[in-house]
Amino acid sequence: MKRAFKIRLADVGMAIVAVLVGAGIVYAGDKLFGITLEHYYGVGTFTPIWVLTLFFVPFVAGVVVSLIYGLGGKVLAHLSPVIVRLYSYYEIQSGAPLPEGALLLPMAYWILIVIVAAEFAAFGGVVGEIVVKRTYGRTPKERLHRLHKKYKKAPLSARVDVDVPPMREPGGVKK
């Protein structure tokens, strides 16, 4: 019982580390590109760098989360961009100065951006799991039943025929 608790605690610790590293990648990507997805400048907001920050940075974070955590990382990959987007929106909402001509993105649009970022992180998590597992989906047939391949079937002439007892009538009388 105590050993199982330690293993689960180690898994939780690894999950926390993986999610925090992914969140650090998303935050560093935001700062590196100089884009805050929560700022809205009108149609001019949607530049190629803004799109790169929305799609590519969470994807990379998802890959890294899956590489750190292993199988199951695609589920954890959702959390990294959500944590950063929540922090960034709260920071702006609580009084951080907005740049000249910028507005805070409305909540409905912001939720859409959070969902898109989380899904691209999950897609990166799937790619990371493929890298970890080295295959995805079903096991190939040639690797599926190796145990039974080493025993060859006997030829038909060597097989034993078994006599089948005759059928009985419902009343218990033989045919």
Task: Please tell me about this protein's structure.
- The protein is mainly alpha-helical and 175 residues long.
- It has one domain.
- The protein contains seven helices and two strands, in the order αβαααβααα.
- The protein has helices spanning 2-33, 48-69, 73-76, 79-93, 107-133, 141-144, 146-149, and strands spanning 39-40, 103-104.
- The chain has a two-stranded antiparallel ribbon.
- α1 runs antiparallel to α2 (48-69), α2 (48-69) crosses α5 (107-133) and α4 runs antiparallel to α5.
- It is elongated and about 100 Å long.
- The termini are far apart.
- The model has no long low-confidence stretch (mean pLDDT 83).
Concise summary:
With 175 residues, this protein is an all-alpha fold.
Mean pLDDT: 83
Helix content: 55-70%
Sheet with the most strands: spatial strand order: 1-2
Individual helix count: 7
* Low-confidence sequence ranges: none
Structural class: mainly alpha
What secondary-structure arrangement, pairings included, does this model have?
Layout: H1 2-33, E1 39-40, H2 48-69, H3 73-76, H4 79-93, E2 103-104, H5 107-133, H6 141-144, H7 146-149
Antiparallel strand pairs: 1-2
Helix pairs in contact: 1-2, 1-4, 2-5, 4-5
